[in-house]
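Aim 2, interim progress. The first record below pairs a target sequence with its structure tokens.
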Amino acid sequence: MEALKRVKKDQPFKTVPDVSKKNREVSVFNIPMPYFAIIFVLTLAAVFTETLPAGMIGSLLIMIVIGEALGWIGDRTPIVKGYLGGGAIVAIFGSAYLVYGGILPDTIVTQVDQFMTTGGFLDFYIAALITGSILGMNSQMLVKIGLRYFAPIFGAIAGAVLLAGIIGQLVGFTLQDAVLVITLPIMGGGMGAGAVPMAQVYSEFLDQPASYYISILVPALALGNVFAIVLASMLNKLGQRVPSLSGNGKLMDGFEETKTTTTFDLKKLGVGVLAALLFFTVGQLLGLILPIHPYAIMILLVAAVKIMNVIPSTIVEGASQWYQFVAKTFTLALLFGIGVAYTDLEAVLNALTLQYVLIVLGVVVGAMLGAGLIGRLVGFYPIESSITAGLCMANMGGTGDVAVLSAAKRMQLMPFAQIASRLGGAVILLLAGLLMSLF
């Protein structure tokens, strides 16, 4: 008995949880919470005293700080973190609300908007993801996937048109409105590559100017983008519960990134930056003579050099490491920028009639189901196929791709998302022109 008492008496105190230590370990952006709070306050002070530096420095600072803060909140909010996209959707719509509510000064909104658009930050991000993820893939499986990826894209289009047409008839919309005014803009590859040229097509066949149709198409795009992000998060949850439906980020068996065992190297990171910038630039250059979107050209070019195995391992490793760095560092910052520059919260709220919402939801769900079903038939995992060929056609192009893949936690699928957005969007424009002659 005395021995037992001695054991209990001598038992180390470390068995008692150190709550204070646990609290000190809470961090945002890998920075302890108290220090991040100081950074946050200083950033806001610069914003509201109008002393935030212009250009890249000020834009990146506010995008990283507020984007990471919103993402941290979203990833810890019940229901939101489990079913609505977590940090991704809070970063986008939280920042959109800051603009809608007039909380962010107009000068800051303009600055972030310019950095995202004319400053090219979105292109910079996507170039890194496309180059690094494709060069890190298994080249034999890259050949195997080939043209079969277009099967789930056409499945997504068919599913969206079918389900939207059915729901439209049930809620009192004409087939023309359900398909031309709502379905095709949502599936058309975003604003620049979809809604704007589609409005031009409509204005050529109908009696209204292009600006009139853009005002009709934008709410469909915005609301469709919301549903695509939410459904992407739900598909991620479904994949965790039914593992047979998910490839955990790979499109088909054997098709995954080649994981490098080398440690991060500053020299290789520099090579990776150069590779991403060069491939993007060559895509733009070839876009002058080829009738294909430069993003699509870039994807095909990177895939071609990977398949032919003409890229040195130093460049492959550098591109892969740069892609990983960009994805981990800038994703929430970019989502904040998407919310400020590309998300019109007022347009979304104005579109919230029950009939309109049901048809838009039908478009996105139809695209998701069609891509997943056809994808499975041609050997793809249904969830990855639904996300890339389905939801990434039903979002707002490049910005939507980032948001959807972030919510689905599958950023490595960016090349396939871009194929769906860009080449799939071109198919939609062609289809719009053909259907206009019929209606």
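The second target in this work package is listed in the same format:
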Amino acid sequence: MGPTEELLRDARARLAAAPRESLGRERTSRWRADRIVPAGAAWHLGVLLLTDEGVLSTAEILRAAEPVRRGYTAESARARAERRAQARRGGFAEGEVVHVGWQVLDAAAVDAGGVSGPLALVEGVPSVRWSPGGLLVPLQGYLDERIALAIGT
């Protein structure tokens, strides 16, 4: 087990009592309206989603909501409302946070010197890019900060 995998294993142990957020996957059908269905749960740590078995990168985050008829001033607002309704149709509770479009990351590849999403090994130190234009920062400090926020300390 490499240093990235060890940091993630330690993070899972520290987060054991912290709440998780839902993961969703898009489903389409000829007979039913598009929906977002449950696909597990993860701890949300900024740009990372930590599951029992792996690590994912975040993408779209939404709250499930019943569809309602409203007048929208922007097409983007209509699209967001439809995405929230898709999650509700897929079985998520009203107001439940759902992560969609996430990507599986390869911690072993990072430990081998590669890059996987926001994770990279920099001079032997596991690192994370906390925003698309942001710098790589040590993963240890990033996880410490995010875990403290997640468990409320």
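The longest helix spans residues 75-89. This observation will shape the mutagenesis plan for the next reporting period.
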